[in-house]
Amino acid sequence: MIKSVDKTIQVLNCFTTGEPVLGIGEISRMTGFTKSTVSRLLSTLNGRGCVETVEGRGRYRLGYRIYLWGLISQKQNSLNNIARPVMKNLRDKVGEEICLYVVENNGRVCIERIKSLHELARMANVGSPLPLHAGASGRVLLAYLPNEQREQILAVSPLDKLTDQTPATLEKLEQSLAKIRQKGFGISKGEREPNAYSVVAPVRESAGQVVASLSISGPIFRLSDEQLKLNIQSVLEASAEISKKLGYVKSPG
């Protein structure tokens, strides 16, 4: 590790949306660096456009160069690009198909899919519209929508009973959504497709809003109790990793 680079990154990491403007003394306390060290680092960063002075001498905010880097990062690091390597690792761990779903209009669509390692497997179609109420991938999205948006969708979306297991009444659906919010994940068996299951967890962005659902899916005959436990643990770990890469920091407690 190059110490000067590490110190520079630590200084830049002090700036947050809550504290966008900082003084030398504040950064010194936050990093443990001496004021003279902080001053030298900020002077160099200022010269390269990474920070700029505000409100007189000794106070700084992030500069235009950081903004430009952010634009580049946004273009390169779409949700798909961030999630894909995590999804591949998840697939290799559990063996089944891994999908990433988002809300579109009053339904959901798969925006990324990693194929199962098994010859006999479920296959989701990327981009095809699917309902939100049938299947854990949709209900996880529905569970974490703002109340007003969820009510608007349910007011115009028929709760079609696709199989005997589909929650096709508002009462059953609301019970399922509450259970998902309580546990932090969802499980469905044969709700949209007979003999198929899904184990699903939410993906959050930096502000904590759920922007996608991450699913493990496969045929029910391969879902032993041991495999179910592995799937739950694995999908929660993977969704947390993607959320962290999107900037989400889970609050303590």
List the helices and strands and how they pair.
Layout: H1 3-12, E1 22-23, H2 24-31, H3 35-47, E2 51-53, E3 59-62, H4 64-76, H5 79-94, E4 97-104, E5 107-114, H6 136-143, H7 147-156, H8 170-183, E6 186-189, E7 196-204, E8 210-219, H9 225-245
Antiparallel strand pairs: 1-3, 2-3, 4-5, 4-8, 6-7, 7-8
Helix pairs in contact: 2-3, 5-9, 6-8
Structure at a glance:
The chain is an alpha+beta fold and 253 residues long. It has helices spanning 3-12, 24-31, 35-47, 64-76, 79-94, 136-143, 147-156, 170-183, 225-245; strands at 22-23, 51-53, 59-62, 97-104, 107-114, 186-189, 196-204, 210-219.
* Class based on secondary structure composition and strand pairing: alpha+beta
Secondary-structure element order, N to C = HEHHEEHHEEHHHEEEH
Largest sheet: 5 strands, antiparallel
The CA-CA distance between the termini, in Å, is 33 Å
Instruction: Tell me the Rg in angstroms.
Output: 23 Å
Q: What's the overall geometry?
A: elongated
CATH overall fold name of the largest domain: Beta-Lactamase
Q: What is the C-level CATH assignment of the largest domain?
A: Alpha Beta
- At the fourth CATH level, what is the homologous superfamily of the largest domain? GAF domain
Helix content: 40-55%
Describe this structure in words.
The mean pLDDT is 89. The chain has two domains: 3-74, Arc Repressor Mutant, subunit A (Orthogonal Bundle); 77-245, GAF domain (Beta-Lactamase, 2-Layer Sandwich). The chain has helices spanning 3-12, 24-31, 35-47, 64-76, 79-94, 136-143, 147-156, 170-183, 225-245; strands at 22-23, 51-53, 59-62, 97-104, 107-114, 186-189, 196-204, 210-219. It has 253 residues and is an alpha+beta fold. The chain is elongated and about 70 Å long. The longest helix has 21 residues, at 225-245. A hairpin with a 5-residue loop joins strand 7 and strand 8 (210-219). It has nine helices and eight strands. The strands form two sheets. A five-stranded antiparallel sheet has the order 5-4-8-7-6, with helices on both faces. Strands 1-3-2 form a three-stranded antiparallel sheet.
